[in-house]
Amino acid sequence: MTTKIDQPFLDETIRILRDYIRIDTTNPPGNEMAAARFLAEILEREGLAPCVEESAPGRANLTATLAGRGDARPVVLLNHMDVVPADAEKWTVPPFSGEIRDGHVYGRGTIDMKGMGILELMALIYLKRRGIVPAQDLVFLAVADEETGGVAGAKWMLERHPELLDIQGVINEGGGGVIQDGKRWYEVSTSQKVICQTRFTATGEGGHASVPRKDSAVTVLIAALDRLRRHAFPTVLIPTVKEYFHRVAPLQKEAWQPVFDDLEGAIARNDPALEEIMAEPGYHAMTHNTAAITVLKAGEKVNVIPDEASARVDCRLVPGTSPEAFMEELRRIVDNADVRIEATFTGVDTPPSPHDTPLFHAIERAVAQHDPGCVVTPHLVPGATDSRYFRAAGVPCYDFIPFRLTIPERMLIHGIDERISIENMKFGVEMMIDILLNLEA
Ligand SMILES: [Zn+2]
Q1: Ligand 1: distance of its center to the CA of 172 in Å?
Q2: Domains along the chain with CATH numbers
Q3: How many Å lie between the centroid of ligand 1 and the Cα of residue 266?
Q4: Which of 13, 258, 333, 349 has its CA 20 to 30 A from that of 92?
Q5: pLDDT tens digits, residue range 79-95?
Q6: pTM of the model
Q7: How far is the CA of 151 from the centre of ligand 1 (A)?
């Protein structure tokens, strides 16, 4: 059976989402306590006994469990309450108004990820109101601080509640339904790249700009960065990504299909179509370690040659890549001992989650119910989510928001006029309910 919610339940969902958006949880500073209290009040009314814990002044995390029969290990419905800042000047509606226009709820967090949090909340409420006792505990977990690293959020909770790791899996933000060129498919992110942030520093003799030197800190740094930007990093293929290309092969234009179907083989024979495919930044990021030059610093005055110049380079590694070996690779590329290259932050390398678990299959079946015939595929997400804290402990995580978004709609994440259609909220709640119900089968 495919779940269809009625109009009053949808109205309630939208009302709760709008009220939730109106709580400004811009991080920093976060102020998630207000959001946690808001969710707790709703959960309390439904008899879902929420527990709010303060992780830092004004910061909070919340859990609420729909108790199951204990036939399987719990599933965690993870979401973060904080949002990134919004520049109200550039928005066409106030970013924390929850205003409705043209069938869309506008507001910071509607996609990332208060909207998804409400899908999880309403799915749980739907089951509870029907008296459904699931096979396993379903744990709603709303956390603080995802947008600046999760120290007061997911990380804090898992350090204090190791029982949250004794579970069968997590559903969290990340992938979802993609609409492109009249086609639709569903990406379930089972893996994410590893952050490796670096600093490049060159030093040299400073002086007056009227007598320039060829080996100033700035010129040395520019030469190093030029070598880096020209460098073509080799392909690094993990099974998750091979599977992704294989599953979406039928959706590609005919000339690309053999390459997608067997990406490894195509790389081995250096298929001419690869160049065009890998020019697509998304495909390139899934199959390569990347290095993005993001911050440049040198000099204060136009007539003074500075004695130091530095750059920040944000690198993202395919899981399984050794950060030490990658740093050596950077030094080899730059090939200049006068440029110091150091790692300033390295994330935890987490193994991809398997795509043959009951939870993954529950998602696959829910897609088959709500959008028959569509491809569902595991996916490597280039960014980072809180799932890394669970995956580091070996817990399978499925980053999947059951919205169907076009590429321009996805670009609204962290962007101007972030919004979600009421139609997507309806679709998302129904699919989320069925993902949970499918765990029974
Ligand atoms: Zn997010």
Answers
A1: 9
A2: 7-179+354-438 (3.40.630.10), 194-346 (3.30.70.360)
A3: 34
A4: 13
A5: 999 999 999 999 999 99
A6: 0.93
A7: 15
